[in-house]
Specification:
Elements (H helix, E strand, L loop, with lengths): L1 H14 L8 H4 L3 H14 L5 E6 L13 E9 L2 H6 L4 E3 L11 E7 L8 H11 E12 L16 H10 L2 E9 L4 H14 L7 H22 L12 E8 L2
Parallel strand pairs: 1-2, 1-4, 2-3, 4-5
Antiparallel strand pairs: 5-7, 6-7
Length: 247
């Protein structure tokens, strides 16, 4: 019985790393940004249909949101670590996606393009493999500490991201700034605490305890303050864009 309880607890912790319910505030130091990102993808991902390419799929945390997809292809950069630890169907060499022209209907890419050293080349590849009228749902951070070093190359402003896609043959259907309020500085404080207190190298139990004692009060206070505090559209966490390939 005790083992079953422990398994259920850790399953709940794992689930709330991306699919953040209210419980996530107590188990996930990045609850504020992950919760908002999940909510936005939950709204927009059903707009992707047909064969969907998940570019930089990782563990595929948002796959279940693709409710109108008829087929799913997870893609990762080809490294031994990615082959061992990522839930990818195909791997690419950093230059060419191993799919034919006009072979997919939609592309999902979440929090990946900042890790691509050649974004112009990759957006050209997206355009190549997409069918005419195909859609891209893209999320990237605007404010976030350096991470996954040395593979963190850039941040994108609203206009910078729009400019990149439009020059490569996409029209913008929807663009959003996430957490454009007091939750962004709160989440950056939590990210600083995560690094400063070295959460990442501590045991899972210690990380959970620190998150519960230190991070949850800050996150919940920020969530409450966001209801009454003014928005600031110049200070936000993530960019989200839904774009369509020109015919």
């Amino acid at each position: 019985m005790l083992n079953d309880t422990k398994k259920a607890l850790w399953a709940l912790v794992e689930k709330n790393q991306f699919h953040s319910s209210f419980v996530g505030a107590f188990v996930n130091p990045f609850w504020l940004c992950r919760r908002e990102l999940f909510r936005t993808l939950q709204e927009l991902a059903p707009g992707l249909s047909g064969t969907v390419l998940d570019f930089g799929c990782g563990s595929g945390p948002y796959r279940r949101l693709l409710c109108n997809a008829s087929a799913y292809i997870g893609l990762e950069y080809d490294t031994p670590a990615n082959r061992a630890g990522k839930s990818a169907d195909i791997f690419y060499d950093g230059l060419t996606i191993p799919l034919g022209d006009s072979s997919v209907d939609s592309i999902l890419s979440t929090q990946t393009l900042e890790h691509v050293p050649n974004p112009e080349r990759i957006t050209e590849e997206w355009h190549r493999v997409l069918c005419p009228g195909g859609r891209v749902l893209l999320t990237v951070p605007f404010m976030w500490p350096e991470h996954e070093m040395p593979y963190d190359y850039q941040r994108y402003t609203t206009n910078g991201l729009r400019h990149l896609l439009e020059r490569k043959g996409f029209s913008i259907l929807d663009q959003r700034r996430l957490l454009a309020d007091c939750r962004t500085p709160a989440q950056l404080l939590l990210a600083w605490l995560y690094d400063a207190l070295r959460f990442g190298v501590r045991s899972p139990k210690t990380r959970l305890l620190l998150t519960f004692l230190l991070c949850a009060p800050i996150a919940l206070l920020a969530e409450g303050m966001a209801v009454v505090c003014p928005k600031n559209m110049n200070t936000y966490m993530d960019n989200v864009i839904l774009a369509e390939k020109f015919a």
